[in-house]
Every structure is written in structure tokens, then in C-alpha cells.
Amino acid sequence: MTPEQCFAFLEKWAKRSQLKWSELATHSRHGLGSEKIPSHKIKPSIPEPLRQDDYKVLRHESNLPMVGIQAGDILYVLWIECNYGDLYDH
Q1: For the segment 10-43, what is each residue's pLDDT rounded down to a tens digit?
Q2: Do 57 and 37 form a contact (C-beta atoms < 8 A)?
């Protein structure tokens, strides 16, 4: 990640950390909110223990996504896209 992408990631992470998941659900998917993506659209190989039907997508810098698994109140970030199209086709 570039320094700018790192800053944007941390800035949005800090904002999200102040909200509950129910509050984040009211935000736009291109803002602080999220959406789901089916596993078959993910380009990198998914390790067997992490495979599931879909994953949670949140944006960091501009509209670049990070993808992870939500377990209760915790989001485990698995991938952070630095260049459009590296993680999945937009």
C-alpha cells in the first residue's frame, strides 16, 4: 500500500471503530458501509479454513475495497486491494 492508502485505511478504520455494526449498516457501501461479495468473484486463492459463501467488503481509499470475514463484532480483514481489479472485477 502507498502511504496515502495506508492513511485512508486508518482514517476510515478509526471512524468505523466509533460505530456499531447496526450503525454502519445505514451507511453507503462506498462510504463507511459495506456490501457482500460471493466467494467465486474473489481472484486470489482462498485457503480452505477461510472459505465461505460470501465475504464482507468495505472501502478504504476512494472506492478501493478491503475484504474480510465478520465474526460477531470483529472484522477479520483478509485482503486489501491496492490497484483496481487485483482482488475482483469491478
Answers
A1: 999 999 999 999 999 999 998 899 999 999 999 9
A2: yes
In angstroms, rounded to a whole number, what is the distance separating the alpha carbons of residues 33 and 15?
A: 11
Nearest to 36 by CA among 63, 51, 57: 57
What does the alpha-carbon distance between residue 59 and residue 24 come to, in Å, rounded to a whole number?
Answer: 12
Q: Where does the chain show beta strands of DSSP type E?
A: 34-38, 54-59, 65-71, 74-80
> Rounded distance, CA 8 to CA 78, Å?
17
Domain with 75 in it: 3-80
Alpha carbon of residue 86 to chain centroid? 14
Quote the cell numbers at residue 63: 472506492
Whose CA is closest to 78, among 70, 88, 86, 68? 68
In a domain, 88, yes or no: no
